[in-house]
Amino acid sequence: MKDFNGKTAFVTGAASGLGLAMARAFAARGMNVMLVDLNEDGLAAAAKSLRAAMNVEIDSIVCDVADADAMQRAADKTIERFGKVHVVCNNAGVALSGEPGTIPLKDWRWIVDINLMGVVHGVEIFTPLIQSHGEGGHFVNTASMAGHGASPGMSPYNATKFAVVGYSEGLRGELEPHNIGVSCLCPAWVKTNIHNTQQGKPSGGRPQDELDADPAYQNMSQIINSGLDANDVGEWVADCVEADRLHIFTHPDFKPFIDTRAESVATDYQAIIDDGRFAGK
After folding, report:
1. Of 157, 167, 217, 269, which is the active-site residue?
2. To bridge 19 with a disulfide, which of 13, 101, 148, 189 should be the other Cys (CB 3.0-4.6 Å)?
């Protein structure tokens, strides 16, 4: 997309963090914005702050992205309010850590329903709506650097973020003929509340005094709180949408992270080439 002025963005997970930052960046470029989040109080505060700062129309809807019917209602209300939607930021997400064999399946379903199916709901619902007005559009699907390389103890999170990367890469070619772009946001450390989201998992969160005494949790909190400012990332996202980039990376120093995985894949692929048993098959 090259022209944002007067168009509309729909942003999930918009009460804080990257969602609010993206909403702010698109509003600054002249877009009307529908803010979407499950946190009613945070959503109201976010909408109030944007209305005070931006000369565009800002509205909000409380919605659970894991609920397809709720997302459909949110889309219907957005069309009723603004007429059209052009940019959809499928950003809402949660984290989940744990060791194999100890993670309740209901927690697995929770993170998959939000991190992956929340993106699917946004794409499936809004694709025909964007196609219908013929003005083109763009999806921004939030993944993570964890969608390009796995870390021990974070397999559920890795699984959902790898899925969003693969899904976005497939969508790119499918939607391009319809003048709909696709970007996959893959940040590393950004100052957000992502490390605390697993407190809302179905099996229950940890007591605050336990978190305060956990060196691993405190270390993660320190790393995230020293990360990039979310507003800077929001501006970069808008720039990348304008440039029609597929992958939106945020940390130049993480390039070796990508290279290491690529080298590992290449090495294992070379093994079957060298073996030769399937040559010409």
Report:
1. 157
2. 13
